[in-house]
Amino acid sequence: MGVEIRVEGLTKAFGSQTIWQDVSLTLPAGEISVLLGPSGTGKSVFLKSLVGLLKPNRGHIWVGDRDLPYLPESQLYETRKLFGVLFQDGALFGSMNIFDNVAFPLREHTKKSESEVKRIVMEKLELVGLLGAEGKLPGEISGGMKKRAGLARALVLDPEILLVDEPDSGLDPVRTAYLNQTMIDLNAELNQTFLIVTHDINTARTVPDNIGLLFRRELVMFGPREMLLSSEEPVVRQFLNARRVGPIGMSEEKDVSELEAEAKMGMDVGKLPPIPPQQMPTTGRIRPAQHAPGAWCAAHGVTPPPGSFIDELGRNWVEEWPRYVAAMSSPVGGHQIGGPQIGDQQVAGQQQPPGARY
Predict the structure, then answer these.
(1) Containing domain of residue 296, as a range?
(2) Helix (H) / strand (E) containing 34
(3) End residue of a domain, out of 179, 194, 221
(4) ∠ CA(348), CA(143), CA(159), 5° rounding?
(5) CA 64 to CA 102: how far, in whole Å?
(6) DSSP assignment letter at 272
(7) 217 and 277 share a domain?
């Protein structure tokens, strides 16, 4: 089971340069959260602060009942064991094969026998689909395989919290989609708390339970996926639409004169795209943290963008969800080969569940 992280009034600066200030959010236990933001807004700095590699200037990071920035060194060391980290480039040791890379934390931080180390390493490699590649060096495998090897190493100590820094960096869209599916499946199986930093809009729109956006040294918004994807905040709409028009500029934010000029020309950040169905585990089973499509919008009186929650087969998942839940809960439907039937379509197995890509 994952651990809740509560961030309260967190501020980080390097000298006179403030990276972000007064950031407050809660990463719910066992849920997948995504952090977005333009380049240079301090997303990676935020991850390093969460794990205690950087100390904030002020504020609190509660990991369970421990306030990370104020822990003595011995307790900080123990608390870090709750975390697994997947770095942008995988951060593999180039002179070690994949097996030894994944085994490194076990050999460094535990007293397990080599037979136990081998069992755990092979289990994690199987979990990320790398069985058979354990003898290869990092230079002999693809970028996507490096990311999965880094993920296996991040998982090898069975952390309760997984921090993932730009998993799409250097990967093509297909490998990014496969890695996203792997993380969804891991969360469904292990129920860990995930925080994923990404620039990939498709990842942000389909994978997480919660989304946050950093901009202008502040956390603009953080909350359930549907809250951000239906937001009328100009910076949110600009980012989701990947448009040049709006408050985000080439360096960071635009000044008042630039925004006024855009307004006079009648330029806007565009309409919000439809909210897609959330991606499901490959088994088709519902993750514990997953909510019914459209539930947040309905509860808060928000009208989602037109076309929301409709998948590539034309199914409206606000309507289909109750039938899907009932089918998954039934003794027959939840265990039959290929998954439950919804309408005339099979939604697991050969026909994929909502949001799935494979």
Answers:
(1) 272-358
(2) strand 32-36
(3) 221
(4) 65
(5) 27
(6) P
(7) no
pLDDT at 357: 37
Q: How far apart are CA 32 and CA 354, in angstroms?
A: 17
User: 311 φ, ψ to 5°?
Assistant: -90, -175
7, 41, 201, 221, 247 from 244: Cα distances, Å: 32, 17, 15, 20, 9
Percent of the chain clearing pLDDT 90 (strictly above):
48
Query: Which pLDDT value is given to residue 271?
Result: 76
Element containing residue 132 per DSSP (H, E): none
Instruction: List, in sequence order, every residue forming a beta bridge with 87; answer none if it has no partner.
Output: none
With a CB cutoff of 8 Å and minimum separation 6, the contacts of 81 are 109, 157, 159
Q: Tokens for 85?
A: 């980290």
For the chain, what percent of residues have pLDDT higher than 70?
83
Residue 284 to residues 181, 259, 298, 351, 356: CA-CA distances in angstroms?
Answer: 12, 45, 24, 10, 9
96-118: average pLDDT: 93
Residue 260's region, left for phi above 0, alpha for psi from -120 to 50, else beta, is alpha
Residues, the chain: 358
The pair of structure tokens assigned to 282 is 């490959």
Q: What is the DSSP letter of 337?
A: T
Residue showing tokens 């490096």: 146
